[in-house]
Amino acid sequence: MHNIQAAMPGEPKGLLLLALILSLAFPIASLNHYPQSPAVGFPLGFPRSGQSRPLASLASAAPYDEQVGVTFTQDFSKLTFNVTAVAFSDPDGVGPGYLVNGLTDHGYWYQVGLSYHWPLTLGGFNPGFNMNYEVFDNTGFSIDPSNGGGGLKPFNGPVNAGDIVLLSLSFGLGSVVMRAMDWQTGAASSHSYPAHGSTFLGLQSSLSSQLGFFTGLMTEHYHSSPYYGTGLPVTYNETGVTLSSASMWMDEWNTDTGQSVFRDNTTEPVQLDDSLGQYFTSNGTAEMANAQGLGW
């Protein structure tokens, strides 16, 4: 298995994402943003982006996909984040996924994540914590796993609520290694796919590529009906570099029809530093960020 060097959870250096508004220990800057636009169309992601479950063409049990995320502006040779394992589910029993996303310089998109009670297309869910993964090619098609619906892999040991889990995307030996590891129990899961490119690209002037791909973080939660609320707080801490700036965004759409419920984002990337916290809220949820982390 590819050896990933990352800081232990007691050494955060970067980004943090939360599911609700918390009291803050640092000053907050109010951000401008675009108004919500419930017009027909696709949200930030490509219609299949972020989907780490098999998709039905119509009438899936939980078609409303709520996404909250950030798009980085800087490039990365690897992406390594510590995320808190949050055991949260909605009234249908479905929980969220916490995803690290990397767009390569060849236009391929790699995703790895930690999910809890991840939904099945026709109802029900995969119980407990699992590792999610998916790869898209540079034309927008999901190519790994081969069924085109996203992958879900178990851990080789227990993952408990409140544990810190490493999520990483790294280049090595001609592959991109997608890996998750629980720092407390040592439980791990991983998957590799041939590397198409050698760098994960930041985006300076847009939230995503033309296909909806981006390098950044995303918390994703499917619901059976339109949702305008929050979940439990979750944090992502970057373990390797200091983050300079990022675009903040959130959206929701119907995966059966492509109909947008809402979409909103900062008008330009926000600068991240230690002294000033950037805050963004829309449609019942919020996220915040500084150079030590970003949150929702």
List its salient traits:
296 residues, mainly beta, 9-stranded mixed beta sheet, 19 strands
Order of helices and strands: EEEEEEEEEEEEEEEEEEE
Q: What distance separates the N and C termini?
A: 32 Å
Shape, per Cα inertia axes: globular
Strand tally: 19
Give the helix/strand class.
Answer: mainly beta
**How many helix segments?**
0
- Helicity level: under 10%
Which runs of at least 5 residues are low in confidence (pLDDT < 50)? Answer: 1-8, 10-58
Percentage of residues in strands: 35-45%
Largest sheet: 10 strands, antiparallel
Name the average pLDDT: 80
Alpha-carbon Rg, integer: 17 Å
Describe this structure as you would to a colleague:
The protein is mostly beta strands and 296 residues long. Helix content is 0%, strand content 42%. It has strands at residues 28-30, 64-72, 78-84, 97-103, 109-119, 125-136, 142-144, 151-153, 164-172, 175-182, 188-194, 216-223, 235-238, 245-254, 260-265, 270-271, 277-282, 285-290, 293-295. Strands 2, 4, 5, 6, 7, 8, 12, 14, 15 and 16 form a 10-stranded antiparallel beta sheet that branches. Strands 1-17-18-19-13-3-9-10-11 form a 9-stranded mixed beta sheet, with no helix packed on it. It starts with 27 loop residues before the first strand and ends with a strand.
Short description:
Helices cover 0% and strands 42% of the residues. It has strands spanning 28-30, 64-72, 78-84, 97-103, 109-119, 125-136, 142-144, 151-153, 164-172, 175-182, 188-194, 216-223, 235-238, 245-254, 260-265, 270-271, 277-282, 285-290, 293-295. A hairpin with a 5-residue loop joins strand 4 (97-103) and strand 5 (109-119).
